[in-house]
Amino acid sequence: MEESFVLGVSTCIFPGESISVQDYALLERFGVLSVEIGYGHTGAALSQPSIREELVALCQDSRPSVFSVHAPYKPDRDLSALDQDRRTAAVNHAKAALELARRLGARLVVIHCSNAVAAATRADHHAQARQSLADLVPIARELNLRLAVELMTPGWLPAGVDEAFEIVDGLDATVVGFCLDTNHANLTGDLSETVHALGSRLWDVHLSDNNGLREKHWMPFQGVIDWKAFMVALGKAGYAGPLHYELDPQPAGVERGLYEIAETFERLMALSRTGANGT
């Protein structure tokens, strides 16, 4: 079971809009095998050509490889926007993120379907988000990319498994799947049950912890998530993708943060082994 999990990191641990060669080199040094280009760095690359070309050059010449790209979603990139012009602009921006992902050699793009939505207009936002995903599917297929819809906190779309499947209903299941963010999904239901429900359409995992009340992006084992149950559920589900640590920039610096990431990853692997052995 241990070999089925890959240590991954989102570049959100790097502060600022660009990533240095020296920082990126630390990833391989600490055993990171998979990278997700985080929201902040994707947004900067899409808005500033010089940063974009630096990022492309860095990822082409360095290891580890880029597995996924997190498409920007705020403040004006809401795929569920009720105004059609705003929704169209958000879709076009997401298309640019897909093209960036292709240039970076990524396999999938993580999608936020909305920003925070009001309860009174949730159904309308849901319909708009579905249309936006439908608009993106042929582009993703053409670029040989997959779209991973991220499960969100209660005020966003989609929140929970039922809403997640509703929002992708009827879309090509070979192109559209899910990203399970433990920090989000821990606020909407049981994580192990969520893993089981997503099944083979679980394509990416974001790891972080919280207090069970609010989104926090803490290091695993700093909050209330039952990590043993979660790791056992991933193993039983046959998940073989990366586990991307999606954390706030580390106050003690990137190197110390990566040390703690590697340490907690070993703890997670130990939990998965003991769970598989029934102990």
Account of the protein in words:
Strands 1-2-3-4-5-6-7-8 form an 8-stranded parallel beta barrel, surrounded by 5 helices. Helix 4 (84-104) links the parallel strand 3 and strand 4. It contains 10 helices and 8 strands. The protein has helices at 21-29, 39-47, 49-61, 84-104, 122-142, 161-168, 182-185, 191-198, 227-237, 254-276, and strands at residues 6-10, 34-37, 65-70, 108-111, 146-150, 176-181, 202-207, 242-245. With 279 residues, the chain is α/β, with parallel strands linked by helices. It has a single domain (2-276), classed as Alpha-Beta Barrel (TIM Barrel).
Query: Biggest sheet, in brief?
Result: 8 strands, parallel, barrel
With strands numbered from the N-terminus, the spatial order across the biggest sheet is 1-2-3-4-5-6-7-8
- Element string (H = helix, E = strand): EHEHHEHEHEHEHHEHEH
Return the CATH architecture.
Answer: Alpha-Beta Barrel
**What is the count of distinct domains?**
1
Rounded to an integer in angstroms, the radius of gyration calculated over CA atoms is 18 Å
**Percent of residues in β-strands:** 5-15%
Shape type: globular
Distance between the termini: 15 Å
Q: Give the fraction of residues assigned to helices.
A: 40-55%
CATH class category name = Alpha Beta
Given helix and strand content, the structural type is: alpha/beta
Kindly state the mean pLDDT as a whole number? 94
Look at the structure and name the CATH superfamily. Answer: Divalent-metal-dependent TIM barrel enzymes
**Which consecutive residue ranges, at least 5 long each, have pLDDT under 50?**
none
Helical run tally: 10
CATH topology-level name: TIM Barrel
The total beta strand count reads 8
